[in-house]
Write a structure and sequence with these properties.
alpha+beta; 7 helices; globular; three-stranded antiparallel sheet; 8 strands
């Protein structure tokens, strides 16, 4: 049984706007989960004087609604200031695409979440974030929830990959249950550091590897 997509959703699915990556983006974030099949990455270029979004692109792995909502969100925020972009809601996105089937509403939420996370990424890099939530283990796990272990295709949070997280005096130490010789170890390490190093209260991020031995 096919879902009742609007003409706008079908049009944007077939001809999405702003698809691709921005080289050396000012802000970038990925939201979604391979478990549900919908993932969106948003890339931003921001004018540092006016704080306006001068360019925005996205990559989407998912259904027609995922692609359509990500496309419309990028169109809605282009030329807007970061503060204006922050005010865009998933309900406005749904209205802009002419409505979505109830089971696909989460795609609009996902697109807006990716945008908001990319804005936060930029603000942290520039040291202009207003809301300064302390970096603790819960926040770290939240930040790392979309880091994927290519060996298994699973998120490292919620699996047995993260062995230990320790935060003290601005220094984060993370131990991964993985061999340092693993072909993806370094890329996972770099992604973890990238997601945490710009936090306002973080001085250093250390990632080490400690593979658990199987008992016979």
């Amino acid at each position: 049984m096919s879902l009742p997509y609007s003409k706008k959703v079908i049009e944007l699915f077939l001809n999405p706007k702003n698809v691709g990556e921005i080289e050396n983006p000012d802000g970038v974030a990925t939201e979604g989960s391979p478990a549900c099949g919908d993932i969106v990455t948003v890339y931003l270029k921001v004018d540092k004087e006016s704080l306006k979004i001068v360019d925005v692109k996205f990559k989407s792995f998912g259904c027609a609604s995922n692609i359509a909502t990500a496309s419309i969100v990028t169109e809605m925020v282009k030329g807007k200031t970061l503060e204006e972009a922050k005010k865009i809601s998933w309900k406005e996105v749904v209205e802009e695409v002419g409505g979505l089937p109830p089971v696909k509403i989460h795609c609009s939420v996902l697109a807006v979440d990716a945008l908001q996370a990319a804005i936060v990424n930029y603000e942290e890099k520039m040291g202009i974030q207003k809301e300064k939530e302390p970096t603790d283990e819960n926040l770290i796990r939240k930040r790392l929830r979309h880091v994927i272990d290519p060996n298994t295709g699973k998120e490292i949070v919620g699996s047995n990959i993260i062995k230990k997280i320790d935060v003290k005096d601005g220094v984060i130490n993370i131990i991964l249950n993985m061999s340092e010789e693993n072909q993806f170890a370094n890329s996972i390490k770099e992604e973890i550091i990238e997601k945490l190093k710009y936090r306002w209260d973080v001085k250093e991020v250390n990632v080490s590897f400690e593979r658990e031995k199987c008992l016979m």
